[in-house]
Amino acid sequence: MTTHTDCWKTPSAEKNSGRKLELSGRDRRALQSCARTAAANVTADLDTHLKDSVSTKTVRQELHKSNIQGRAATAKPLITVSTAKRRKR
């Protein structure tokens, strides 16, 4: 006797039935290795290595999934001897 779920399985309920990933595991590792530059530069580098081109949005999404987010450093004032003296007043 089969269970209720076995009777009602459809091809869409099978394994790997969702949307295919745009980047493979190998592509993700290559992306993480060159992720220290801007997304547009990474996209240009990745396009040379991949057979299909990838958008900058895809690059940002994949880096975000890998917990790599780009943030700009906070601008800090240059404190020289003369500016330190002025600040003490």
Topology diagram in text:
Blueprint: H1 4-7, H2 25-33, H3 39-49, H4 56-65, H5 81-88
Plain-language structure description:
With 89 residues, this protein is mainly α. The chain has a domain at 23-71. The chain has 5 helices and no strands. The chain has helices at 4-7, 25-33, 39-49, 56-65, 81-88. Helix 3 (39-49) crosses helix 4 (56-65). It is elongated and about 85 Å long. The N and C termini lie far apart (89 Å). The model has no long low-confidence stretch (mean pLDDT 76).
Which percent band covers the strand fraction?
under 5%
Number of helices: 5
> Largest beta sheet, briefly?
none
Helicity, as a percent range: 40-55%
Gyration radius (Cα, Å) is: 24 Å
β-strand number: 0
Compute the separation of the termini in Å. Answer: 89 Å
Residue-averaged pLDDT: 76
Unreliable spans: none
Structural class: mainly alpha
